[in-house]
Hints:
This protein is mainly alpha-helical. The chain has one domain. Helices cover about 75% and strands about 0% of the residues. It contains 3 helices and no strands. The protein starts with 10 loop residues before the first helix and ends in a 14-residue tail after the last helix.
Amino acid sequence: MVEASYRKYSKEFRETALRRLSATANVSELCRELGISRQLLYQWRATGQRAERKRSIGSEERLRQENEQLKKALVRRTLEVDFLKAACAKVEAQRQASIGSGETASGKRSAN
């Protein structure tokens, strides 16, 4: 029976290996130098890419939700402003009506 020997590589080692992978033309030589298999190196790359996509999707969803909240807040503020403008106009109209002299407002004088 053959026992498999597993080695745990540090995060820093994996990140360095992936940076070097993206900059090298000879993957086999890199793997020999690092003492790892191509399969393991490509597995690390795939895992990193999946994690990056997951983060990207998460941030997109967060931005979508924030955008929706901001749109709702804008609608509320717009309604509040419209309400206040109408209320001010009504108060102004009532104020104008209450300070009148009781005479009809006319710019023309009768010629008697």
